[in-house]
Amino acid sequence: MRRIGVLALQGDVREHSSMLERVGARVQWVRRPEHLAELDGLVIPGGESTTIAYLLTTSGLRDPLGVALGEGLPVFGTCAGLIMLACSVSDGRSDQWSYGRLDVAVRRNGYGRQVASFEADVEVKGLGPVPGVFIRAPRIEGVGDDVHVWASYDHGDGEHPVLVRQGSAWGCSFHPELTSDTRLHELFVGAVDEALR
Ligand code: GLN
Question: Is the overall model pTM greater than 0.85, yes or no?
Fold first, then answer.
C-alpha cells in the first residue's frame, strides 16, 4: 500500500483523502515538516494558492517541501495545487510564489471568477471522458518541452491543456476530488506505484 500525503493546510483536503483511500492508498495529512517523512507521493489540493503559500511559510513547510520536490517526490497539484507547482504564474498577487516543479505557465482565475465556474467532461488520454469541475480555475497558457499534455479543453476560447505531467509531477486545472470518479487518483497512485517497483 502506498503512503500518499495530502497537504492539509487549506482547501479540499478531506475530499482528496477519501478519493485516495478509495483507490487503496494510505493517507498522511501533511501539516508540519515531519509529516513529509516516508511519503511515496503528495497531493496539493485546490483551494486558494495565496492562502496555501502563506500557510506553507508559517508552518515551516515551505523549504522542506521544496527540497522534497527537488528530490523527485511524486506530486499531483489540482487547481490551486497546480498554481503552487507552476514555473510561472500570471495575475498572481505581487508576492505570489510557487515551486516551479512543473514547467507550465498558468494564469490565475484564467477561466473567469467564481460566477464563471463550470463543469465539463474532459477527454483524458487513455481514460476517455472524465468529469471536470472548474472553480476559479487556473488556465495553462504555456507548457515546456518536457511536459506531456494528457487532456486539453476548449471553453470557447481555444484549446488549453487541463491535465499535464512532467515526470513524476502532475497538475490539473480542475477538481477531480469533487466528483465520484476516482480514475485520476488511480492514475497518479498507479504511476507512483510503478515508479517504486
Ligand atoms: N483561483 C484560486 C487560486 O488562485 C484557485 C481556485 C481553486 O483551487 N479552486 O488559488
Answer: yes
- Compute, in degrees rounded to 10, the torsion defined by CA atoms 7, 9, 12, 13: 50
12-42 tens-digit pLDDT = 999 999 999 999 999 999 999 999 999 999 9
Q: Which domains does the chain have, with CATH numbers?
A: 3-196 (3.40.50.880)
Among left, alpha and beta (phi > 0; psi -120 to 50; other), residue 107 is beta
Q: Angle formed by the axes of helices 62-70 and 49-58, to 10°?
A: 100
Could you tell me if 38 and 1 are in contact, meaning their C-beta atoms sit under 8 angstroms apart? no
Distance of CA 159 to the CA centre of its chain: 20
Cβ atoms 42, 191 nearer than 8 A = no
The kind and range of the H/E element at 68 are helix 62-70
Pocket test for ligand 1, best of 90, 91, 109, 113 (most atoms within 8 A of CB): 109
Residues designated catalytic: 79, 175, 177
Among all chains, which residue has been given the C-alpha cell 510557487? 98
Query: Checking phi first, is residue 7 left (phi over 0); if not, alpha (psi -120 to 50) or beta?
Result: beta
E-state strands within the chain: 3-7, 26-30, 41-44, 75-78, 86-90, 102-107, 118-124, 128-134, 139-143, 148-154, 159-166, 169-172
